[in-house]
Amino acid sequence: MLAVSSASLQELVLHQTDWMDGVNIVAPVLRQLTVSFSAMEKVSISVLAPMVEMVSWRCCYFKVSIVFGVWRLEQVTLQTAQTPGQLPSLQIHASANSIFVCEEETFMHEIEKHMIAEFSVLELHLETNGHVFGALAFHVLGMNRICSAMQKLKVILQRSSVKEGCSPHCPCESMGWRSQTISLTGTEEVEISGCGGDGHEIDFLKLILKCAPMLKKMIVKLSDGASSSDDGCTNIYNIFKAYSSVELYVYLSSDYDAYQSFSICILCRVNARQPRLTISMIVMVTPGSVVIVDMIILSRTTNSVTWS
Ligand SMILES: [Zn+2]
């Protein structure tokens, strides 16, 4: 346990390589806090630093102890803005495997402990191993401090190269998440990376559209498998028919992380005056710039994407 109590401390930097079971800080004039530590299981956290402006916080969990269904909590990070214009973010890393313990309360409570500063972006880094992530995601999104603060949601799906898939009665599907209703009134942007266009991923996007009435922009970065088949893409376009106010960006290329080469992005925007017609553009995306190359019309009547 790290315990710091100081009336004059303005900056605290801690990189702990050994595991700790908690952090207790009382520092009324602290401005900058950098903490990185590992924990075996549940931690105890208390930070009293009302003047803090810069926070970089990271806790890694070693043991399989914080569990929600098939998901294990691996890391929680909280980062205030590093550059002007950047938004403060909370990042949750979890991985799925064959364990099944129903400890929703413990899981959510553990995440809550790390919310030691304000944030407006939530990032979910999920190693799915073929499992359905909707139940986990909507439980996290339903947490009071998250649904009230979140302006932007990023879901990063990490798929393994080995054969994925869960058993027919896998508990990842059994929690009725598809009928959940939560209110994400502050959420304006959602980005999902590694999306394969699978049924449960489409259901997740649909539910997000339903729960976030102020949503302006959705970015879908397809996984390699989805990029090579039309189905994943078409499934995604289809759900946007009913949401004319949302801009949908679909990235087909798997290069989007590296941006080494040009990647092609389809900007698909439903024209509100002519709802049957979708005006789209092919744009070339390079780091920091978007160049419009061509205007296309996307036909919604066929099952595949056609250009004209
Ligand atoms: Zn599963």
TrEMBL record:
The keyword Hydrolase does not apply. Residues 189-219 form the FBD domain. Keywords: Membrane, Transmembrane, Transmembrane helix. InterPro entries: FBD, FBL15-like. It holds the Pfam family FBD. The chain crosses the membrane at residues 277-298. This is FBD domain-containing protein. It comes from Triticum urartu (Red wild einkorn). The lineage of its organism: Eukaryota, Viridiplantae, Streptophyta, Embryophyta, Tracheophyta.
